[in-house]
């Protein structure tokens, strides 16, 4: 079982000479009896939430963010800790543990540490025949990137994208020549099917090579990299999404992009609803840091079919929150571009699995997304990808096509706030925008012909 704990430093007694890690360990030991399956006599593993870089480097990142974005309220990441101990608890036990921890005055926030990746709904199409004609999301019913390719930089040249998730088949026949690098974290087996279909599909949408094999990615000219959410820690393997987001942020330049292929559950039992990861405090603060550094963050709205304007109940939080409803008293804006999904045919309709609401900025196809994949034998195959997992890379492609065209014309790349406004200008609406509530699909042709670039 793994949890993340943020200390409320104003709640600590001045006379307490223990280290912050020791305080966290004591708090968890006091709350741990609620987790009946945990080994009581096992030593807790308590460490800073962000360990991939030094505290000095982390402070420097925060200082850069403050200098770059005057609206950024800096986070002291040294107050965040990750806690791992032997034994697995039921969802109810973990919820109780989080509730007890959240009740301590010394605790500012607590959450489950590990998240969930977005599963792919796939129709496998093996073989290596050219599949470009099946990639409708590149054309007029999609983001119209085929039109943008006719302009300098429209292929994403001069930009960099990082996919943040669990695992990939980087040696896929339609990706291998892109030399996509794992920059941080681990490349592990994806939980869906025991192979790498999810990450491989995401990369394929953006980066498949124009090599007369398979399909063509949205960004033939962009640099692509990956950061894994799994990490080695003291001989074990853990999943740390906030650290992965911070890693991607420090490895990108202002105007570049990361796509967060992840979602998370809430505290509803027995079947949690699915939400974007920014409902969790640690992930929110990591995303906010990235945005303040000038990085465009694209975040799936998640596949819960939920109205995100409704209150949500998080694990260990007794009060329902409206973090995702614009105008609500407790609304908070990470600055990420949140992406919903729609049907592929015109007129587009919100896909039944897509979350929706005022926080969703843009949408794209959530079905029939032809892209690269891999089967259990690690063979090169192609698949029809789906969900907000599939929609997010398409919008990411539109973002970096825009940045590439601006750069090719000697113009400054857009900030996250500027991009979030521009990406939907002249965009395609769904059949029923008021009820669908997933924003607009980017239309690169409209942006180009309208003189916005």
TrEMBL record:
InterPro entries: Peptidase_S8/S53_dom (IPR000209), Peptidase_S8/S53_dom_sf (IPR036852), Peptidase_S8_Ser-AS (IPR023828), Peptidase_S8_subtilisin-like (IPR050131), Peptidase_S8_subtilisin-rel (IPR015500), Subtilisin_DY-like_dom (IPR034073). GO terms for molecular function: serine-type endopeptidase activity. Gene3D superfamilies: Peptidase S8/S53 domain. It comes from the Eukaryota. Pfam families: Peptidase_S8. The keyword Plastid does not apply. Residues 197-425 form the Peptidase S8/S53 domain. GO terms for biological process: proteolysis. CDD domains: Peptidases_S8_11. Keywords: Hydrolase, Protease, Serine protease. Belongs to the peptidase S8 family. This is Peptidase S8/S53 domain-containing protein. It comes from Immersiella caudata.
């Amino acid at each position: 079982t793994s949890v993340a704990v943020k200390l409320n430093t104003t709640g600590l007694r001045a006379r307490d000479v223990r280290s912050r890690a020791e305080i966290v360990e004591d708090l968890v030991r006091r709350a741990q009896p609620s987790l009946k399956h945990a080994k009581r006599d096992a030593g807790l593993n308590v460490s800073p939430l962000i360990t991939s870089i030094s505290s000095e480097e982390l402070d420097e990142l925060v200082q850069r963010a403050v200098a770059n974005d005057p609206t950024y309220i800096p986070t002291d990441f040294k107050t965040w800790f990750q806690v791992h101990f032997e034994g697995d608890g039921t969802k109810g036990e973990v919820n109780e543990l989080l509730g007890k921890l959240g009740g301590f005055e010394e605790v500012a926030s607590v959450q489950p540490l590990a998240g969930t990746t977005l599963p792919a709904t796939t129709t496998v199409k093996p073989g290596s025949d050219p599949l470009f004609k099946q990639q409708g999301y590149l054309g007029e019913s999609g983001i119209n990137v085929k039109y943008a390719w006719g302009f300098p930089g429209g292929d994403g040249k001069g930009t960099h994208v990082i996919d943040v998730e669990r695992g990939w088949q980087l040696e896929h026949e339609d990706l291998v020549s892109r030399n996509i690098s794992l920059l941080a974290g681990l490349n592990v087996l994806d939980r869906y099917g025991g192979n790498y279909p999810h990450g491989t599909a995401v990369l394929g949408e953006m980066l498949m090579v124009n090599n007369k094999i398979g399909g063509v990615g949205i960004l033939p000219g962009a640099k692509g990299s990956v950061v894994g959410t799994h990490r080695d820690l003291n001989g074990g393997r853990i999943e740390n999404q906030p650290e992965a987001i911070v890693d991607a942020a420090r490895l990108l330049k202002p105007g570049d992009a990361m796509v967060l292929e992840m979602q998370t559950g809430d505290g509803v039992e027995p079947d949690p609803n699915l939400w974007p990861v920014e409902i969790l405090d640690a992930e929110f603060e990591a995303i906010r840091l990235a945005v303040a550094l000038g990085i465009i963050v694209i975040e799936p709205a998640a596949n819960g079919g939920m109205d995100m304007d409704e209150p949500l109940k998080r694990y260990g939080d007794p009060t329902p929150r409206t973090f995702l409803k614009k105008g609500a008293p407790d609304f908070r804006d990470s600055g990420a571009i949140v992406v919903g999904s729609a049907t592929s045919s015109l007129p587009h309709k919100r896909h039944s699995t897509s979350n929706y609401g005022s926080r969703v900025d843009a949408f794209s196809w959530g079905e029939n997304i032809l892209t690269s994949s891999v089967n259990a034998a690690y063979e090169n195959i192609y698949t029809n990808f789906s969900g907000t997992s599939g929609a997010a890379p398409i919008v990411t492609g539109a973002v970096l096509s825009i940045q590439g065209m601006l750069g090719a014309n000697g113009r400054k790349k857009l900030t996250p706030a500027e991009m979030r406004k521009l990406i939907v200008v002249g965009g395609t609406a769904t059949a029923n925008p008021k009820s669908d509530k997933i924003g607009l699909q980017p239309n690169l042709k409209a942006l180009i012909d309208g003189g916005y670039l």
